[in-house]
Amino acid sequence: MLLFRFMAAGSGFSDGEEHMLPVLSNRVTVHRSIPFAMTEAGTRTVLLDTLWTDLQQARNRHLWVELSSRPIEYVVAALPALFTKNGESATQRATRLYAVALADFIAQSRPDIHRMLTGLTTTADSADNHKDDLLARHPELKQILLAESPWEAQAANEAERLKALSQLFDKASADIHRQTAIDRLRDLQTPEGGWAWFKGMPANRHITADVCMVLARLQHLTGHHPHIQTMLQRAVGYWEQCIRKDVEALKEFEHSTHKKGYITDNQLHYLYVRSLMQGATSAEAQADIRFLCERAALQLPQMNMHSKALAAVVLQTQHRERAAATALQSLLEHTVATPEMGRYFDSKRAPLSSRTYRIPTQVATIEALHQSSDTTNRDFIDEMRLWLLQSKRTQMWETSRATTDAIYALLISERPTAHAASSVTDTTNTLHFSLKKGRRTLFSDVSSAKANAHLAGHALHGFDESAELQADHLILSKQGTQLSWGAVTAQYTLPASAVTAYATGWQLKEEWQVKTEGTWQTVDITNTRLRVGQHVRRVFTLTAERDYDFVSLRTARAACLTPSQPLSGYFRTNFTHGYRAIHDASSDFFFEKLHKGTHVFTEEYLTTLSGTYHGGITTVQCVYAPEYTAQTGSATLWVE
Asked: What is the number of other CB atoms lying within 10 angstroms of the CB of residue 173?
């Protein structure tokens, strides 16, 4: 800090002022990461030459190696997100019942997952209660403090959900929680069998459809609970009456127009629930189902991927194998696959939700492939499950739809070789590493006392000014065939002028524009002479290579620039929206969710001082998975 004082003195009096002038360091903190994932047994080499850019000028060097040997724990640990929802709507009460009943099923039929989650509960109650809270974990790897972001409440909620695991898997209270959830849901069921959205409202077929899909999947996964089955049968009876009226109207339309009609999403969901229940139906209901199945088979080319996947499940149940095979072939043709990410949809025909991304479509397709008698589909199922697990790496899944769908898909018809779950006592999938320089081993976690940390599924090893920083490659090894992931991260400081562009999981492009005669023109800012009072702006083009939750972008601001919008607040540009926070020498942009694809937004300034200034760098990072980061290089501004 500099203190400057100026005074004016006259005959017999004087006056003056003094101010503190902050002097910012010309060094900036650099984060560079290399994320990795292993789905097969063996070894893998990760070169570290891209982490360190200028060893002569680098200071305060740190290196971290983070390993997660059982990512499935993050998926199933999302169950409390449903259990802790105390909403009064029928769908919220149904998802709470789903969480309670599924937890009881896991405790009885999957002791390996039960023990794993019990270990998470112990961790959540211990002093290290942020170990499995991904949003708050490892602040040293992140460019912002959680308290600086709008997501402190979400982090607290995630920590509370981990603690709620103990309630979910407590055998003494499991029956009480389940019966309470059943009673609360039954309370919203109307005399005709349908469910009202809230108490006092009439039955609604769309709300009934949502609740029936949750309960039908629960029954299909865990077996038939008598009280749940009774509620479900009453609701389907109400729904059946609505469908009968639909079929009559559809037949009348076809008779009068001589054209084939189309089924609606609600009618398709009815067929889907019926296919999961597989119970006895009346002759009239069977006739309606056959009629709607015929229309669904004709409508397949016009359906989106989610509807087509549900239709494939229905058609297989109704023994229309040829139409079902056509639907499955079309679904697979719209997917892409990579060894690390698995198989997923990258098509506009797969519905994209602002809250659940493409998870419902992925889940419906997994179920359709599982229903198929074609054994070659097993590999496709494993690939699509892998994508779900990889999605959890960068997403919280705090919405009930995403959580219920994903857990359902990962647990139905699981086979031992799938990328889904591993026994807590089985250490074959434990991921180990060694830091090496040439042939010389600098560090090995196998011989380290820290190796036992892997048994909890997650480990973080840190290295500072020591011999390990000389490593030029990392050797990973494991014996299991299930998914493990991690990242190696370097952190150090460099002069701002020495920082170069870098990206992992992102593409970040920054352009400068100058306002001339009312229009914005892109310029090479380093070779452009600006004038005091001129309007300039930065255009950020951010391309996400996958779907992300909790993204922060920090852009440093030259001292000669003043934001045209000096107040912090919510902003929206095209399909991108978030929160913008203004600081003395930088601006932060916070996005709760960013879909895969390209997002463009701007920051406008007014030049206020003449001279030569450093423009600062821009860094973007997924706070939920900080190994995915990108930054721009530096620029010089000349102002006359």
From this structure: 14
Return the SS3 of 568.
coil
3-state helix, strand, coil in the chain (%, to 5): 40, 30, 30
Tens digits of residue pLDDT in 14-73: 888 888 777 777 888 888 999 998 888 899 999 998 898 888 888 888 999 988 887 777
Tell me the H-state helices in 131-192.
Answer: 152-168, 171-186
Closest among 272, 354, 269 to 316, alpha carbons compared: 272
**Is 33 in contact with 627 (CB distance < 8 Å)?**
yes
- What pLDDT sits at residue 210? 94
Determine how β-strand 502-503 pairs with β-strand 629-631: antiparallel
How far is residue 339's CA from residue 39's CA, in Å, rounded to a whole number? 8
Could you read off the pLDDT of 569-599 as tens digits, one per residue? 998 887 788 999 999 889 999 999 899 999 9
Residues near 191 by Cβ (< 8 Å), separated by ≥ 6? none
SS3 260: coil
End-to-end CA distance of the chain: 26
pLDDT at 19: 80
Q: Residue 189 has what DSSP assignment?
A: B
User: Would you say 462 and 63 are in contact if contact means Cβ atoms under 8 Å apart?
Assistant: yes
Q: Cα–chain-centroid distance for residue 332?
A: 23
In this structure, are residues 61 and 464 in contact, taking their beta carbons and an 8 Å threshold? Answer: yes
Structure tokens at 53: 């850019």
Cα–Cα distance for residue pair 588/551, rounded to 1 Å: 10
Tell me the C-alpha to C-alpha distance, in Å, between residue 557 and each of 70, 95, 406: 41, 46, 42
- DSSP type of residue 479: S
**Which of the two residues, 425 and 564, has the higher pLDDT score?**
564
Count CB neighbours of 6 within 10 A: 9
User: What's the farthest any 2 CA atoms get from each other in the chain?
Assistant: 110
Radius of gyration in angstroms for the set of CA atoms belonging to the chain, rounded to a whole number: 29
pTM over 0.70: yes
